[in-house]
Amino acid sequence: MSLIYRRRANQPSFTHVINDYFGEIKPFSKRIGKWYFYIPLIIMKTIEWSIYRWYKTPIRRFYGVKGNELIYMITKRCNEKCPKCGIWKTPEPDNEHIDISIFLNCLKMLNENLYQVTITGGEPLLLAEDVLKIAEESRKHEILLLTFTNGVLITEDFLKRYAALNHKLVISIDTIDESKWTDFRGKATFEKVMENIKLSKQYLGRNLQIQSVIASESEKEIDSIQSFCKDLVVLHTTQRYLDFGGVWNNPINTPKTTSNDVACAARKNIIIYPNGDVVKCFDHRRILRAKEPLGNIEKEDIIQILCKKRATEVSKIMKTCNFPCKEMACNVPEIIYN
Length: 338
Ligand SMILES: C[S@@+](CC[C@H](N)C(=O)[O-])C[C@H]1O[C@@H](n2cnc3c(N)ncnc32)[C@H](O)[C@@H]1O
Ligand code: SF4
Ligand code: SF4
Fold this sequence. Notes:
Elements: H1 14-30, H2 38-54, H3 58-62, E1 68-75, H4 100-110, E2 114-121, H5 128-140, E3 144-149, H6 156-164, E4 168-172, H7 178-185, H8 190-204, E5 208-214, H9 222-232, E6 235-240, E7 269-272, E8 277-279, E9 295-296, H10 302-306, H11 309-318
Parallel strand pairs: 1-2, 1-7, 2-3, 3-4, 4-5, 5-6
Antiparallel strand pairs: 7-8, 8-9
Helix pairs in contact: 1-2, 4-5, 6-8
The structure holds S-adenosylmethionine and iron/sulfur cluster (2 copies).
One iron/sulfur cluster binds at residues 264, 266, 281, 283, 286-287, 318, 321-323, 325-326, 331.
């Protein structure tokens, strides 16, 4: 089954459709007060139900050919303790971590829709073999993979195998000053990361990027990181400080990089948490209708999850949503289907 094309064999059965119809119509009919409204309102409700079930609904239009980004927070576990980020404080227990085969299946099902897969965390390289499996699957479908890492666990063996698949690796650093490093990372990993950046450049060439967070604690570091990247011939990107549960602060007077008139592009995203829960943006809890995950890929098929009525409603709400998280790199427009 696909989000874009024809109906396929594993669509709901006839009995499923009947149950679905009566499941909506029965409670609706009980709410009709006047007997003479009964038939017209039931007809209208039936039309509405048919539209949601059979018509190419707006949710399907959000998911176009190569129009979407699949973002996998592969784990919340981390080997660093950065004060800018609170993710490392709540690592998932083993029983809340899906098997990699479940994510790979989800990637296969969505492959026609995706222009990019992004792996983030926690620290993805704690699960380097799983990252490589995702890299292989993405390459099979000619989808670009972007993996974010703190750079500590990079090895030559990982780089050889990752480089052969021609994907991008983003190493995050917020200073190149050794005296500040341990405060910024919570661990004394300066030398290891610097060594690994140079090794990564050798193997990945232009497929290596460096990203820094601009906060009041790090803004003075950005110029020196930029010249370091320039000397190394590596693309440097920045990300404004946002609420990741950390204790850093936003720099005063930082201009907004997005306009209120442009819809939040997070609508193009499909985000999977370590336990398989599916959401549309990392800040979904700010939206009442999106507080609860849309589903879980361990229990349901991803296409069914994305075709739920609530998924359509959430995507519509996101169109006019204007929280600061709109400025996160993954929420900036790429291709958007209206
Ligand atoms: C959460 S980390 C996970 C991947 C990996 N551990 C790393 O540090 O690259 C993903 C990206 O988010 C950035 N990040 C962390 N805390 C942030 C914050 N408070 N605001 C904005 N970006 C943040 C990191 O610098 C990194 O580039
Ligand atoms: S930013 Fe990355 S390395 Fe730092 S604590 Fe968060 S997940 Fe770990
Ligand atoms: S503004 Fe934030 S909460 Fe709203 S849709 Fe965008 S990322 Fe989600």
